[in-house]
Design brief:
By secondary structure, the protein is mainly alpha-helical. Helices cover 67% and strands 4% of the residues. The chain has a five-stranded mixed β-sheet. The protein binds zinc ion.
């Protein structure tokens, strides 16, 4: 949002430029008198006063000159705090938030009652989606209740938090204070659009004051974006540019939004245009880099899916991801009673920074994946530490968003679509459910869960650092609870309520027959029954785990084996760093008790533990115990965790499947192995040939065996298989 000028006193055009003060020039610009504003600013640059010159150059968009003049002005002994605030705002506009913050702080040291400095700090906080913006604005309003700009920003923040009533109230306050509060009018327009009502009256008011004020449309677009309405956001960014072609920030935002919708050429054009016109914020620069990196990707299309994979790992991801996507599509089509209109596009980034660019400017999103309409961007397993990430659960999560956003035409509160997506992960596999992490237990213990009607706040502008995670868990567990008590269909009913623009309170009343307050009480009772004891004993558990870790470090295996089970029983869901399962398993291993080791690792696996080494060890134990089917199931879990750069995994799984005559699976595993350029390439090609042969796919068997012989011409088993193939009378596919 562009800030409003300090004063909004409209000057007449006859005003002599030389007599103008900065506020007059900004007011001319705000009211659409572009040419007069320019000559006014030009006049200021001739001023004897450095501060006036700074404002003049700023108005002429001569940023460096403006900065230099501000520096000069601040050197004067009597330079007031307000000049520092203005300089801070210039620096913020030019992407230098660090120095802007310093200037605001300096201003507040000189003048603790400077309301505008607090507004400046609030803008920086809102930029970074931290929790302080609201406090800063409250402070600004307390110091100067007549500062319209502070009310405008408060309205903006409230709407981003989906608090429409507050947004409207604050926007009205701003308009009551200044009848040309354009940004407040834009908030009203956004409120109307989000509620699917016509915004025209508000845009008409804005145009009457300044027909060339593109920022109003850009502000609206930004709010639409925050409400997942990317297509609509594109429409309004386009309008912003139409009325103000030189609004480079809107060109950049349009480019980024179009990228989210899976476009490439137009985004490049828009972003490059912004860049070439010196609009070079981090989002613009990084998005251009990301577009450039697309040359390293390969695209795989079928009728319903488009997969964009990095060339270095495409062959290792494609078979699993494509198959999973089809399973997901079939499952959700049935469950949500709908089909998607076009193919869904999934982009998988091995470089987390590239993925992070995709989520720039989006709050509370994108830890692992993010959905924009029918485009999903996500981390590749290779972007993260093995064991940290499950691409399968991420894909089920993001795909749920694709369906729910489509079903509601993007009219769904954040908490519900996130909650449902988290719920779906657990539906796919209990091992993939979102577990109650220590943060969640602490929030339950300290009664920090939010009422369902205001749960959205926990996602956008969290009040404490872990609140976003806690809110994901809470949203998910609310959906679990609804399913458990009222049935899965009620979740779909709620989806339909949101599609009809009902509020959460209305959706709950209509679908579940109780008020939101009643729901909160029942849900809290349920969650307390589930986690109350764990939460209450959290500190005790932590102490006991510490003791256990110390004992393990001292190799006191008896102590570990004696105390471990009790630690696990206190908080069985804990499978993260230094969990008791792994400590007990290591003690069992040291004691040579393979049966107990397999049992504890199985428990770990079923709780969702996913460290590759542990699961491989379990598979080894299962194989040794004559349980090949269990070993296969364990290794297949690893394909969802870290299928890349792991020859050993694919070879072992291929061998196990082959031995169990599951040739399709063996072919899949050996194909991935052979395509990943393994150390023993000929061996992998030969194994693949054998699997094809066993499956009766003679042509492919022959191709593979020839491949093996090309790699290693003297490879006897391959020569033998080739002879055998040539003797086989009938070939088939
Ligand atoms: Zn999500």
């Amino acid at each position: 949002m562009r800030r409003a000028p300090i004063l909004a006193l409209l000057m007449t055009c006859s005003l002599a430029a030389s007599a103008a003060v900065p506020a007059d020039c900004w007011a001319l610009r705000k009211h659409g008198h572009a040419a007069e504003a320019l000559s006014c600013f030009d006049g200021l640059t001739q001023s004897a006063d450095a501060y006036n010159r700074a404002e003049g150059f700023w108005g002429l968009e001569e940023w460096e000159q403006a900065g230099a003049q501000f520096e000069l002005a601040l050197k004067q002994t009597k330079s007031p705090a307000s000049w520092r605030v203005r300089y801070g705002m210039l620096l913020h506009e030019r992407f230098n938030n660090t120095d802007a913050a310093k200037l605001y702080e300096e201003a507040l040291q000189m003048d603790p009652s400077n309301a505008e400095a607090y507004v400046g700090l609030a803008i920086l906080s809102a930029d970074g989606f931290d929790d302080k913006a609201e406090d800063y604005l409250k402070k600004a309003i307390e110091l100067d209740p007549k500062l319209a700009e502070a009310h405008e920003w408060m309205a903006d923040l409230a709407l981003a938090n989906d608090d429409t009533d507050l947004a409207v109230a604050e926007a009205d306050k701003a308009i009551a204070l200044e009848n040309d509060a354009l940004d407040a009018m834009a908030i009203h327009a956004a409120v109307e659009l989000i509620a699917d009502r016509p915004p025209d009256a508000w845009f008409a008011k804005i145009q009457a004051i300044n027909p060339g004020y593109g920022q109003a449309y850009a502000n609206v677009a930004r709010q639409l974006e925050l409400h997942y309405r990317y297509e609509d956001a594109v429409t309004y960014y386009r309008k912003a540019i139409e009325v103000e072609p030189r609004l480079w920030s809107a060109h950049s935002a349009l480019g980024i939004d179009l990228m989210r919708l899976g476009k490439e050429d137009e985004p490049f054009h828009e972003l490059e245009l912004s860049y070439n016109n010196d609009y070079r914020d981090t989002a613009t620069v990084n998005s251009l880099k990301l577009l450039d990196s697309y040359k390293n990707f390969e695209t795989f299309k079928d009728k319903t899916t488009v997969l964009k994979l990095n060339k270095t790992e495409a062959t290792q991801l494609l078979p699993y991801m494509q198959a999973e996507l089809h399973t997901i599509l079939a499952t959700y089509e049935k469950k949500y009673h709908m089909t998607l209109t076009g193919p869904v596009q999934v982009e998988v980034y091995p470089d987390h920074d590239d993925f992070a660019v995709r989520t720039t400017g989006m709050p509370g999103l994108g830890a692992l994946g993010v959905t924009f309409g029918q485009v999903i961007a996500m981390d590749s397993p290779s972007a993260r530490k093995p064991g940290d990430f499950n691409w399968g659960s991420t894909l089920w999560h993001e795909m749920s968003h694709v369906f729910i956003l489509t079903a509601t035409n993007h009219r769904v509160p954040r908490w519900f679509t996130e909650g449902l997506a988290v719920h779906e992960e657990g539906q796919r596999s209990p091992e993939w459910r979102t577990r109650a992490t220590p943060d969640v237990l602490i929030a339950i213990r300290d009664k920090k869960l939010l009422p369902v009607s205001s749960l959205d706040r926990g996602f956008v502008y969290p009040e404490y650092p872990t609140q976003v995670n806690v809110s994901y868990f809470q949203g998910g567990s609310i959906c679990d609870y609804i399913q458990e008590k009222w049935g899965e269909d009620k979740l779909l009913d709620m989806v339909h309520s949101y599609a009809r623009l009902q509020t959460t309170a209305q959706a709950i009343q209509q679908s579940l027959g109780i008020s939101a307050e009643q729901f909160d009480r029942q849900y809290l009772a349920w969650i307390n029954q589930k986690y109350g004891a764990e939460a209450a004993h959290f500190d005790e558990w932590k102490d006991k785990l510490k003791t256990l870790v110390a004992a393990a470090e001292q190799q006191q295996y008896d102590t570990v084996l004696q105390q471990g089970p009790a630690v696990i029983a206190m908080y069985p869901e804990y499978v993260d760093d230094a969990n008791a399962y792994e400590l007990v398993a290591a003690a069992d291993r040291a004691r040579g008790d393979v049966k107990a080791e397999a049992a504890i690792l199985t428990a770990y696996e079923h709780e969702g533990g996913q460290m590759p080494d542990d699961l491989k060890r379990l598979a080894t134990l299962q194989e040794a115990a004559g349980q090949p089917a269990e070993a296969v199931a364990t290794l297949e879990r690893l394909n969802y965790i870290y299928p890349v750069k792991d020859e050993d995994l694919h070879r072992r799984l291929g061998d196990l499947l082959y031995a169990q005559k599951q040739y399709e699976g063996a072919i899949r595993e050996y194909s991935v192995l052979a395509a990943s350029n393994p150390v023993d390439k000929a061996g992998a090609q030969f194994d693949l040939a054998q699997a094809y042969f066993a499956a009766g796919q003679m042509d492919k068997a022959e191709d593979s065996v020839l491949g093996a012989l090309e790699t290693a011409p003297g490879y006897r088993p391959a020569q033998k298989l080739l002879l055998e193939l040539q003797k086989t009378p009938v070939k088939s596919n």
